Amino acid sequence: MSLDFEEPYFEFLTAPVCNEARALHAYWLQHQSSDDRNGIILPKRDDIALPDLVALGCADRAFIMEPIENDDWQYRLLGSEIVRYFGRDVTGVPFRQHMLECEADTAIRISNEAARTRKPVFLKMRFVSGEHSGMIETMSLPILARDETTIWLFGATFFPESN
Predict the structure, then answer these.
(1) Structural domain boundaries of the chain?
(2) 50 near 62, Cβ under 8 Å?
(3) CB distance 126 to 9 below 8 Å
(4) What per-residue confidence (pLDDT) applies to 2?
């Protein structure tokens, strides 16, 4: 899933922009809770339900990522629309094995930061991949893995309607 950038463009957003992204972020927020010390408890992996993602209209653009050995990440779940846009399914493939080195380093750094801080990351970026090009909006939302200790990232990538 190599991304060739045209007129390099990469922007951190303070909040989601497109309607679907805002709806998915609201869904994630609904599954947060507070502990006795007013700390935020992240949503759990089991809180994320496919019927809910279908109702939000983003099941085919959703992903779940997990950290793996050697300071890398991999997709544990990758929506069919993401696979279609990028031309192949990279579920279970470490970032360093399917991305250019600079892309993998950036994706890993951003993912590690989201997991470390337990705060969402919202991005907007330009891409060219196969026959598809344009701006994408993506988000990584920290969740608790099924062991309720490890931080995974849940989110979606929103593609342009037309190329």
Answers:
(1) 10-158
(2) no
(3) yes
(4) 41
Residue 77's nearest CA partner among 59, 103, 54, 56 is 59
Q: Does domain 10-158 have CATH number 3.30.450.20?
A: yes
pTM confidence score: 0.88
What does R_g of the chain's alpha carbons equal in angstroms?
Answer: 15
Torsion of CA 47, 53, 54, 59, to 10 degrees: -120
CB distance 128 to 6 below 8 Å: yes
Q: What is the pLDDT of residues 76-103, one digit of tens each?
A: 999 999 998 878 899 999 999 988 898 8
Among 82, 84, 72, CA closest to 137: 82
Question: 12 CB contacts (<8 Å, ≥6 apart)?
Answer: 121, 122, 123
Residue given tokens 């007129």 in the structure block: 7
Is the separation of the CB atoms in 73 and 107 below 8 Å?
Answer: yes
Distance CA 30, CA 135 (A): 28
Query: Dmax over Cα atoms in the chain, in whole Å?
Result: 51
State the average pLDDT for the chain. Answer: 88
Torsion (CA) 64, 48, 59, 123 in degrees, nearest 10: -50
